[in-house]
Design goal:
4 domains; 4-stranded antiparallel β-sheet; OB fold (Dihydrolipoamide Acetyltransferase, E2P); 6-stranded antiparallel β-barrel; elongated; alpha+beta
Amino acid sequence: MGWAIKNSEFGIQNSRHTFQIPNSTFLISQPSLKGCATSVAAALLVTTITLSACARRAEPDAYGNVEATEVVVGAEASGRLVSYAVNDGDRLSAGAVVGAIDATQLTLEREQLVAQRAATASRVNEVRQQIQGLEAQRGATIAERDAARAQRDALVAQHEIARRAYERTTRLFAQQAATAQQLDQAERDYRVLGDQIKAQDEQIRAVERQIAAQAEQVQTARAQEQTVRNQVAAADAQVTQAGERIRKSQVINPLAGTVLTTYAKAGEMVQVGQPLFKIASLDSVEVRAYVTEPQLAAIRLGQEARVSIDAGPNQRQTLPGTIAWISSQAEFTPTNIQTREERADLVYAIKIRVPNENGVLKIGMPADVEFVAKSAAR
């Protein structure tokens, strides 16, 4: 007795008996079966049920790839890379000095600028002392002027007394009560005091001109002091710039992470902006996936998600994550991404942040994403 299996109908037939098993349901054409036919039918039934169960296995909500924030560290100075201790796979801490560019010339330039700054700063003290001397001279001249004014006031008082004496002597001489000699003496005293007052006024004006000249000298000296101070400030800025250039000659790692790629070696000549190494923090990574518009309405920022990756033959490893970003603009489905609804032409990019302390997730690794509903998360 020969048996034949039809794949298209999942049927078994011989010359007398036919078994049909569509979608895990089978019909027996005749009520009487031999033992062999029964065994074959049972085996096919199990196979059909298994295939049906596989077909009903839930598909992932989205597909994506692992990403990380990558930083390319470049040279901030030009010169020979005298030291460089970076290798692929190294874990570096933030702020670690991992290399140095030759800064000998920069150091010499800074020392020269520091010496020039010190010389310029000494001129500030010299100008200040000069200003103090000029102000002392001006103070003395002002005192001299004040003394001359006081002396003039005394002469004015004496001149007033001499005037009254001269007028009285003139009246007495007219009454023949005073001699001509007395009149001449009174007139001489009056006129001499008048001349002395004029001379004192001239002296006071001269002293005031001297005071004005000294004030201009003080003002000029103060302007010179300000100029020197500005020169000192400029020298300070130059010294600071030189120090900054020296600081930039050091290769400093900006963030804690793992070195992905190195682009230079110790002893090479580098230029400003030349890449030295690429680093990324892998303690927390992101899975960039794509969802369709119907799916978009069911997800939100902060929603929990499960990310699964291959963990070996017929094995998957699932990691918890959180939706950290949802694109506000649709885009065409990337060629390397499959969505659950293949008829959708436009998709939205999302990012799921996943802790990666053990480092199981690698950049570029494909991953399946399953969204956790709010009720399930509770």
